[in-house]
Design goal:
With about 120 residues, this protein is mostly beta strands. Helix content is about 0%, strand content about 60%.
């Protein structure tokens, strides 16, 4: 599967963006789709995941501000990001895989297909 993330941009603190992850084929019934991000000089971190039965997980850092959803008819997964903060600035990637889980507030995923990222910049 090929994945393409889009919807990034420059926004002020407190603003909103909606990211889209478009897949080249229908998501498989065992696909978990996740959003991850990587800021300059930092390791990649999990943001949010949605399973094939619409189970959702969020990293503590975005819980209450971000919402993940999927439209299987369009093969797209969305990430609605509200109340953005400068620390949300990163390149955001979407990926598919077998599972996501949260341990100690950190989202971890077993992902095997990754798309190109989209830049999100939040100005203070």
């Amino acid at each position: 599967v090929q994945l393409q993330a889009s919807g990034g941009g420059l926004v002020q603190t407190g603003g909103s963006l909606r990211l889209s992850c478009a897949a080249s084929r229908a998501f498989l019934e065992d696909d978990t789709v996740g959003w991850f991000r990587q800021a300059p000089g930092k390791e990649r971190e999990g943001v949010s995941c949605i399973s094939n039965d619409d189970g959702v997980t969020y990293a503590d850092s975005v819980k209450g501000r971000f919402t993940i959803s999927r439209d299987d008819a369009k093969n797209i997964v969305y990430l609605q990001m509200n109340s953005l903060k400068p620390e949300d600035t990163a390149v955001y990637y979407c990926a598919t895989g077998a599972f996501c889980t949260v341990i100690g507030g950190t989202l971890l995923g077993g992902m095997n297909h990754w798309g190109k990222g989209t830049q999100v910049t939040v100005s203070s």
